[in-house]
């Protein structure tokens, strides 16, 4: 018998609204109206009010200052302090970040961090709350304005944040915090400061919050869309100066996803990462507000960079013709090789135990036709490796594309054995025809 509230056995659980086809009767149920009001409707209202609200110079300056303060609440506080625990901060600094972060209208620290940890853990999958794989617009703002099925989002542990009284208090009182930090406080400063109450609300409150929101959303969209991937290209995060410029340094996102607990996003001094600079500045006397700043060893960072460079090189290598691998070439007896090179026969030349077909190249040989013709049907290892002329790197590369066979026993000569084993293993840098130390008698063609 079904208990109260359980689903009868012959009935499947009701699907979340997002799994139903959109129609005129249900479209509004798919919208998260609270978020839509906070990230679209109020900003549009603010934009409308700017038409009739003059922007005074002090209000403009205050709006810019408060923009950076609230943006830092997100980048230095919500993101690097609480989501990733990149450093520790003393109580006054945490209170400041919780206040300014609330003023950015992006949810409570607890809610924001839970989503962000899921984003890192399940990047580019359906469990990533703002996966760019669901479209640029979805990762930017769509995930906020649409109701999402809570069963889809990846779960993360944020219990560590419960030991921070500032986080717990802000979460419980988030509505009041938002109202005061986002709109009332900037209005009071402009009102009491220079009598511009209305301008303070419209510009330093509503429009400033809109800009901070859009800048932060760019980290979820643009930083997964444009830029380079110097550390790993298996997933979408990218490094780009443009996104760093609008997000107080959060645009070095490829680095950040690889080394999320590093308090830096940009690792070189000339890259723009004011969030990093501020965290560092507040660790110094006389502030002493931040401490235990975490960084990854440069050895680890360089390993990642090198592996990515190697990957790019390997990719490029695969587009080039290096000749057939030795292991795929037919083995030809010396007598057969000689027999195939009669007067009207093939133009085969053996170099370092490998047989090459020179017929298409003979007339293009920079050293002239005669030298090649004189080597046909013979072992030209010596002449090719300095007996007549020390051939260039490019010549060895070109020769490898003409491989047609391997001489039986041709690889038994000891000095060649080692390097050919390397070539057999697929070491593409190894030029099998290059013989560093000639065996006596090998010079004679
Ligand atoms: Zn990301
Ligand atoms: Zn992050």
UniProtKB/TrEMBL annotation:
* The protein's role, per its UniProt record: Stearoyl-CoA desaturase that utilizes O(2) and electrons from reduced cytochrome b5 to introduce the first double bond into saturated fatty acyl-CoA substrates.
Q: Report the subcellular localization.
A: Membrane
Q: Which reaction does it catalyse?
A: octadecanoyl-CoA + 2 Fe(II)-[cytochrome b5] + O2 + 2 H(+) = (9Z)-octadecenoyl-CoA + 2 Fe(III)-[cytochrome b5] + 2 H2O
Naming one, the record's GO cellular component terms include: endoplasmic reticulum membrane
Q: What is this protein called?
A: Acyl-CoA desaturase
Write out the ranges of the annotated region (Disordered): 1-20
Q: Which InterPro entries match?
A: Acyl-CoA_deSatase_haem/ster-bd, Acyl-CoA_DS, Cyt_B5-like_heme/steroid-bd, Cyt_B5-like_heme/steroid_sf, Cyt_B5_heme-BS, FA_desaturase_dom, FADS-1_CS
Organism listed in the record:
Ampelomyces quisqualis (Powdery mildew agent)
Tell me which Gene Ontology terms the entry assigns under biological process: unsaturated fatty acid biosynthetic process
């Amino acid at each position: 018998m079904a208990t109260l509230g359980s689903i009868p056995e012959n009935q499947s659980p009701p699907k979340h609204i997002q799994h139903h086809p959109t129609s005129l009767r249900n479209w509004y149920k798919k919208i998260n109206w609270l978020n839509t009001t906070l990230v679209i409707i109020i900003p549009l209202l603010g934009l409308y009010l700017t038409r009739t609200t003059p922007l005074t110079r002090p209000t403009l300056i205050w709006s810019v200052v408060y923009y950076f303060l609230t943006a830092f609440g997100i980048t230095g506080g919500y993101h690097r302090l609480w989501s990733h625990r990149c450093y520790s901060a003393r109580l006054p600094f945490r209170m400041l970040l919780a206040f300014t972060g609330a003023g950015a209208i992006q949810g409570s620290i607890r809610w924001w961090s839970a989503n962000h940890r899921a984003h890192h853990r399940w990047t580019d999958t359906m469990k990533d709350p703002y996966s760019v794989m669901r479209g640029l617009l979805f990762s930017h703002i769509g995930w906020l304005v649409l109701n999402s099925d809570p069963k889809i989002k990846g779960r993360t542990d944020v219990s560590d944040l419960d030991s921070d009284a500032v986080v717990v208090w802000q979460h419980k009182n988030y509505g009041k915090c938002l109202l005061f930090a986002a709109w009332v406080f900037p209005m009071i400063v402009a009102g009491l400061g220079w009598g511009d109450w209305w301008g303070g609300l419209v510009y330093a409150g509503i429009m400033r919050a809109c800009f901070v929101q859009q800048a932060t959303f760019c980290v979820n969209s643009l930083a997964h869309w444009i830029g380079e991937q110097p550390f790993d290209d298996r997933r979408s995060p990218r490094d780009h100066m443009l996104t760093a410029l609008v997000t107080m340094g959060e645009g070095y996102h490829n680095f950040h996803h690889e080394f999320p607990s590093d308090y830096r996003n940009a690792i070189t001094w000339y890259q723009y990462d004011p969030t990093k600079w501020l965290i560092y500045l507040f660790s110094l006397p006389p502030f002493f507000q931040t401490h235990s700043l975490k960084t990854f060893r440069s050895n680890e960072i360089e390993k990642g960079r090198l592996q990515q460079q190697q990957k790019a090189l390997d990719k490029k290598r695969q587009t080039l013709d290096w000749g057939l691998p030795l292991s795929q070439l037919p083995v030809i007896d010396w007598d057969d090789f000689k027999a195939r090179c009669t007067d009207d026969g093939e133009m085969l030349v053996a170099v370092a135990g490998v047989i090459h077909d020179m017929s298409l190249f003979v007339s293009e040989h920079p050293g002239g036709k005669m030298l090649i013709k004189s080597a046909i049907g013979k072992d030209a290892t010596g002449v090719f490796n300095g007996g007549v002329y020390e051939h260039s790197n490019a010549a060895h590369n070109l020769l490898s594309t003409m491989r047609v066979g391997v001489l039986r026993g041709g690889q038994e000569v000891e000095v060649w054995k080692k390097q050919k084993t390397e070539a057999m293993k697929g070491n593409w840098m190894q030029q099998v025809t290059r013989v560093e130390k000639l065996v006596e008698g090998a010079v004679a063609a």
